[in-house]
Amino acid sequence: MKAIVNVDNNWGIGIGDKLLNHIPADMKFFKETTTGNTVVMGRATFMTFPGPRALPNRKNIVLTTDKSWNAPDVTVCHSVGELLDLLEGCDTDSVFVIGGSMVYEQLLPYCNTAYVTKVDSAKPADKFFPDLDKTDEWEIESEGEKSEHNGVEFRFVTYKRLKGGV
Ligand SMILES: NC(=O)c1ccc[n+]([C@@H]2O[C@H](COP(=O)([O-])OP(=O)(O)OC[C@H]3O[C@@H](n4cnc5c(N)ncnc54)[C@H](OP(=O)(O)O)[C@@H]3O)[C@@H](O)[C@H]2O)c1
Question: Average pLDDT, stretch 114-142?
C-alpha cells in the first residue's frame, strides 16, 4: 500500500474535521495519483467529502466500526483484518491510504511508499502523520522543487520504506 498525505512543518494534517492547507496543485496531484486506483480512509475523513460522496473513478474503501453504516459506491470494512482480507490477491501498489490520522497510524506499517506534500507552515493542529524524518525505517527517495501558493511554499516528497513494517 501507499500513503498519500499533506503535512505541515510539524507533520500536522488537520484540526477537527478540517485540513490545514488547501493547495490546488496538491489537490491535482492527489487526484492524478489516486484516480483509477483504490483509496482507503477512515469514516471521519469520508464524512469531510462534499456530499459526503465517494471519490469518483476510484474504488472507495471506508473503515468504520459501525456495522450499520454504508454509503453509495463505498466498500465498508470494520477492521484492519477485514481490510487485509479484502485486499488479498489485489495489487497493493494500487491501494492508497488517504487518511486520516487514525487510519494512517494503523496502516503505515503496511505501506512501502509515502507521497508527502510538505507545506512550509506551522498551523494549530490536532491530527498528525508519523514523522518519517525521525525514523530510520523510511528515507526520502525523491524531492520535488519548491512551489508556492498564496505565499506558502510546498514541495512533493516521496519516501520509501527501508525496513520495518509488516
Ligand atoms: N492532510 C491530509 O493529507 C489529510 C488527509 C485525510 C484526512 N485529514 C484530516 O484528518 C482528520 C481526520 O482524521 P481522524 O484521525 O480524526 O479520522 P479518520 O482516520 O479519518 O477516521 C477515524 C474513524 O475511522 C474508523 N476506523 C479507524 N480505524 C478503524 C479500524 N481499525 N476498524 C474500523 N474502523 C476504524 C472509525 O470510525 P467509526 O467511529 O465510524 O467507527 C474512526 O472513528 C481531519 O482533520 C482531516 O481533515 C488530513
Answer: 98
CATH class of the domain defined by 2-139: alpha beta
CA distances from 119 to 19, 66, 81, 165 (A): 12, 34, 33, 26
Q: CB of 80 closer than 6 A to ligand 1?
A: yes
pLDDT digits (tens, 9 = 90+) for 6-26: 999 999 999 999 999 999 999
Enumerate the domain spans of the chain: 2-139
Check: pTM over 0.85? Answer yes or no: yes
Atom of ligand 1 nearest to the CA of 99: 6
Alpha carbon distance 29, 15 (integer Å)? 22
Partners of 154 in the β-ladder: 119, 147
Using a 6 Å cutoff on CB, does residue 48 contact ligand 1?
Answer: yes
